[in-house]
Design brief:
Keywords: Membrane, Transmembrane, Transmembrane helix. The chain has one domain (3-150). The chain is 75% helix and 0% strand. It has helices at 3-29, 31-40, 59-70, 76-92, 98-114, 120-150.
Length: 151
């Protein structure tokens, strides 16, 4: 397995683990809220308007919103999808642009600083691995160009 493929596979594994772990913890800690969604109906889980025109959201409504934004509305689902995409691209031999890695690293670093302690920093590591894999591709292309120029 090439170094680039190995780096991308590690990065995607970190992303998938972070996203799946986040959703798993939500199920463990907010199971009652998720089950209540099934009783109320999925459309009633996070209402768009305050109940009865009240100025303050009810505690139950606020808890539903927190559960939504900690679960299906969080970074977890897109992070899993990005991890799966990068895993597939690595297996196909397609290079992932360094900009994807930089964006992921910066986003996760800022998230880690704002929400300490958190596993956001592991996401920054995944971003750095994507950048390193992209640079590995640049080096191999440059080496090939150099060899072609010498012959």
């Amino acid at each position: 397995m090439s170094t680039r493929k190995r780096l991308l596979r590690w990065a995607s594994g970190i992303m998938i683990t972070l996203g799946a772990g986040h959703l798993s913890l939500l199920v463990v800690f907010a199971w009652a809220d998720i089950v209540a969604w099934m009783d109320q109906g999925m459309w009633a889980a996070v209402p768009l308007a305050l109940a009865d025109g009240a100025a303050d959201p009810a505690g139950e409504s606020l808890q539903n919103q927190v559960t939504f934004w900690a679960g299906p509305g969080s970074f977890a689902v897109p992070l899993i999808l990005l991890g799966c995409l990068i895993w597939h691209l690595a297996g196909s031999g397609v290079a992932v642009p360094a900009g994807i890695g930089w964006g992921l690293a910066v986003w996760c670093f800022i998230g880690g600083v704002l929400l300490v302690p958190s596993p956001y920093f592991a996401g920054a590591v995944a971003g750095v691995l994507v950048v390193l894999a992209a640079r590995q591709e640049d080096r191999s292309c440059a080496d090939g160009d150099r060899e072609n120029a010498l012959t």
